[in-house]
């Protein structure tokens, strides 16, 4: 018997994936079979298995757990056709595949998405097993910022950059080693990067986030910008010509903002936390930084 996996997000949008492999990995990382890009989902969260006529779900030591009918599971748990699996705010069900379901010309079932209005959109760019039509990427819907975050996470698994202080940014050996590692990661992810994303730009942005000041690097280099204000990860304002405007650049996460602040204040022996919520510092180019 063939099965399909039905995934629904918190907005009621639904997509259907065929269950043709012996196992299907689920998580936030882009190398999973089913990718759930949400904060409450672990990089490698859970795995579905087909064993004879049984369907099993296993939690992979995720941070927030995997639930079947709102009961948190331990180890492998059998899933019945009427059961609901919850991972983060996503609801997942496994259903037998009906013979009458329409197949694509290749014999594979196209991905289906139900919009908020209830209409159905078919996306033929992505098909079972993550193999898109020739020349098309596996994850064409992932944004530039999501790719930066994923590549940076993989970089940290390979290199210990968390403890690198701001005064080591000028170390050319470190920079070149980091750059080479990022290039290798991007090459490994070539099927997951949409053609609309510039690889040189992606390399620069990940390198800046890993060793520099993230999206602030380009802004600091712009002589027409007189002030930069970071309200939160996705809210960066700049002053240019006496006018304050919202910038189109963003950090990949709130944690990335904190890492940049720590790089700035570490060389002067300062820290920023609840006991010391405000700090003044200067960058190497003389720019003054005030963090609260």
Describe the structure.
With 292 residues, the protein is an alpha+beta fold. It folds into three domains: 3-96, Sandwich (Tumour Suppressor Smad4), CATH 2.60.200; 141-211, no CATH class; 213-291, Beta-Lactamase, CATH 3.30.450.90. 22% of the residues lie in helices and 28% in strands. It contains five helices and 18 strands. The chain has helices spanning 144-158, 172-188, 199-211, 216-221, 254-265, and strands spanning 3-8, 14-19, 23-27, 34-35, 46-51, 54-59, 67-68, 71-72, 76-79, 85-87, 90-96, 111-114, 120-123, 225-232, 235-240, 243-246, 279-282, 288-291. The strands form four sheets. Strands 8-7-10-11-1-2-12-13 form an eight-stranded antiparallel β-sheet, with no helix packed on it. Strands 4-3-5-6-9 form a five-stranded mixed β-sheet, with no helix packed on it. A three-stranded antiparallel β-sheet has the order 14-15-16. The protein is elongated and about 65 Å long. The termini are far apart. The model is unreliable at 99-141 and 162-169 (pLDDT under 50).
Please outline what is shown here.
The chain contains 5 helices and 18 strands. 22% of the residues lie in helices and 28% in strands. The termini are far apart.
